[in-house]
Write a structure and sequence with these properties.
This protein is of the alpha/beta class. The protein has one domain: 3-Layer(aba) Sandwich (Rossmann fold), CATH 3.40.50.720. It has helices at 20-31, 43-53, 66-80, 103-128, 152-171, 206-218, 228-236, 242-252, 264-274; strands at 11-15, 35-40, 57-60, 85-88, 134-139, 177-184, 223-226.
Length: 277
């Protein structure tokens, strides 16, 4: 565990900051007194978010391009000063049967969800390690501890993000730089548009994830699962026989949340946008 600190005055850079969890996190941290910069690949939405949030440091960011990420963080440091916290948030979740997923979509998902996090983490570390100060926070998912039909590639990327983040944390735990991850349950953003969720468990809100990020900045820890109930249930599956775990998944609707429980028309706009390659 790290020492307790404060959000006020911290320079925080957020990828995918123009919408969803990234936007809510930017809003929360600004309210807490942080100096926030956002980057996003959607230039139109980025411009709108900048006006709504009132941020002064922002730029186009393609997390699949290391040069783009470097330019983003260079811009942040030119405008706001040395970056204290990098939140690797950008991610996509196209859904569908694995055999029917186009190769280009699978590759795009891996490049954004996994390689984007790796790139952002490395770019942050190169700036933070010489100062022996800083914090990398990766937005993972409880999908990184789950197996949800209809989201195989998404689950795979989040399992990898979980492993990558924890391994990097252990590599640099004595460096002065903290490395953490937030693992959300189904969160009410475009990613879950048209999905049915899980019986008896409410989806969490982007503001819940934003609060978890703010809490980690104040008191660094390896990981936070949101919500605690969803995290506990997900973790418990690892100790159950497969047939019991799969039965519970069927009863709770988790195994059909991304398949039979999907309203295609409600997801169409999102799927069209994230599948564009």
């Amino acid at each position: 565990m790290g020492r307790a600190g404060t959000v006020h005055g911290k320079v925080v850079a957020i990828s995918g900051g123009a919408r969803g969890i990234g936007y809510a996190t930017a809003r929360r941290l600004i309210d807490d007194g942080a100096r926030v910069a956002i980057g996003d690949i959607d230039d139109e939405r980025l411009k709108e978010a900048v006006g709504e949030l009132g941020v002064t440091a922002y730029t186009h960011l393609d997390v699949t391009d290391p040069d783009s990420f470097a330019r983003f963080l260079d811009h942040v440091e030119d405008v706001l000063g040395p970056v204290d916290v990098v939140v690797n948030n950008a991610g996509i979740m196209p859904l569908g049967a694995s055999a029917e997923e186009p190769d280009a979509v699978s590759r795009r998902e891996v490049e954004i969800n996994l390689l984007g996090v790796i790139t952002g983490t490395k770019q942050a570390l190169t700036r933070m390690l010489p100062r022996r100060s800083g914090h990398v926070i990766n937005i993972s998912s409880l999908a990184g501890e789950s197996y949800v039909p209809g989201g195989a590639t998404y689950c795979a990327t989040k399992h990898a993000v979980k492993a990558y983040t924890e391994t990097v944390r252990r590599e640099y735990r004595n460096s002065g730089v903290s490395v953490s991850q937030v693992m959300p349950f189904f969160t009410n953003t475009e990613l879950v548009a048209g999905t049915s969720g899980t019986k008896g468990m409410r989806n969490v809100e982007p503001e819940d994830i934003a609060a978890a990020v703010a809490g980690l900045i104040v008191r660094p820890r390896p990981r936070v699962r949101v919500s605690k109930l969803a995290g506990a249930i997900t973790q418990s599956q690892a100790f159950l026989p497969s047939r019991v775990s799969e039965y519970l998944g069927r009863v709770l609707g988790a195994e059909s949340a991304f398949t039979a429980g999907v309203d295609p028309s409600a997801r169409q706009a999102y799927e069209d946008r994230v599948r564009a390659v």
